[in-house]
Design brief:
heterodimer; A: 3-stranded mixed beta sheet; about 40% helix; B: about 90 residues; alpha/beta; 3-stranded parallel beta sheet; two-stranded parallel ribbon; 3 helices; globular
């Protein structure tokens, strides 16, 4: 991956941080001034909405930009709003979008239970193939998705902080760049919450994410925890890609060249994204 | 003794599924005459995640410590080879 792509991501992440500070207005999420949202943003917005779902005055202010509004409808944001009882869901009724408006998208999917997620893996394999990946690459990308989803359910079962469980997924293909961004988030206990029992010395989200990436688990007495290590290895080695994990208030980004870490906005649970480049 | 792993599905994910597959395999293997060598045949499996693979293969090895456990059928699927090789390298290190 060349230096310009890395710089692009560093600048983009910094802008993202500013962007999220602007859109969060206590119990309201204000998207009114935005012109575009990436899969990472879509899942982030979903997590922010979950966090606020029981707050009085909860609200989402939808974008003024009509193209973005169509995009949000195509991404099935209204399904998430309906599920979390945001009344603004009704505003999407008047937005008309053909279902095949953009075939390079994977709309927001909320898999509440492990079985639901497992059942969708076949769909994701097909999605990667439709995006233009070769069969073996699509299979490996599906294994990465499967392992990320496993982590969500393995570490949060019986511990979900709210009554919303499971993972939320969104993806987008950028055919000209031959790049896929795949984001998966969960409103769970996060890396620190999961690892603290086994590693009580951990005192920050960033340290906890790095501990998890190094192949450690919070499940005391069980020989497991290497899944995330394989995911980052495959993302980087097989796809020249990048893995980003935002958990609690910490963000760690791993690429072939470097590992970056910085403070992000404080979120409930974890948001992970892998960006891969295909042949 | 050959265990056809594809009978558990062509996309194999999650630790609970891996554990269940071990329990079913135990029933199959225990009903066999020859358990000196157990071949886990991955022909027909499209995707396997490290969680399933770890739970399944480690579980079989634990149940049959004196049997020779062979992994076969990876030749046509480099992804399965990649997953199993990564796990093997990890155990060696």
């Amino acid at each position: 991956m060349d230096i310009f792509i890395i710089l692009y991501y560093i600048i983009n992440m910094s802008l993202n941080y500013q962007k999220y500070l602007q859109i969060i207005k206590e119990s309201a999420i204000d998207l009114s001034s935005l012109d575009f949202l990436y899969p990472w943003d879509m899942v982030m917005v979903s997590l922010l909405l979950i966090e606020r779902k029981d707050q009085p005055g909860k609200k989402i202010i939808l974008p003024k930009n009509q193209d973005l509004l169509k995009y949000l409808k195509r991404m099935h944001l209204q399904e998430i709003l309906k599920e979390l009882a945001y009344i603004e869901e009704a505003e999407f009724d008047s937005v008309e979008v053909p279902e095949h408006y953009n075939l390079n998208l994977q709309e927001l999917s909320h898999c509440k239970y492990r079985d639901e997620f497992d059942a969708r893996l076949g769909h994701f394999l097909g999605m990667f193939l439709n995006f233009g990946m070769e069969l073996n690459d699509a299979k490996l990308a599906t294994a990465i998705v499967g392992e990320l989803g496993n982590n969500v359910f393995d570490h949060n079962l019986g511990k979900w902080p709210t009554d919303v469980s499971g993972c939320i997924i969104a993806a987008q293909n950028f055919p000209k760049l031959k790049k896929i961004e795949f984001a998966i988030g969960d409103p769970g206990i996060g890396f620190l919450g999961s690892l603290k029992a086994a590693f009580p010395e951990l005192d920050s989200d960033i340290k906890a994410i790095k501990k998890g990436l190094a192949g450690n688990t919070g499940r005391i007495g069980e020989n497991r925890g290497n899944g995330l290590k394989y995911i980052q290895s495959w993302t980087i080695k097989n796809f020249s890609g990048m893995l980003t994990i935002h958990s609690g208030g910490g963000v760690v980004e791993v690429s072939e060249e470097k590992t970056s870490e910085y403070q992000g906005i404080k979120i409930l649970g974890t948001l992970a994204q892998f960006v891969i480049y295909y042949k | 003794m050959i265990v056809e792993v594809r009978k558990f599905g062509n996309i194999l994910n999650s630790r609970p599924s891996g554990r269940e597959a071990v329990l079913i395999s135990k029933q199959i293997i225990n009903g066999s005459k020859d358990i000196n060598e157990i071949a886990l045949d991955f022909n027909g499996v499209e995707v396997i995640t490290p969680s399933f693979a770890d739970e399944f293969i480690s579980g079989i090895k634990l149940l049959y410590p004196s049997s020779k456990i062979k992994i076969v059928g990876m030749e046509n699927n480099p992804v399965i080879k990649e997953v199993l090789d990564s796990m093997e390298k990890d155990k060696d290190s």
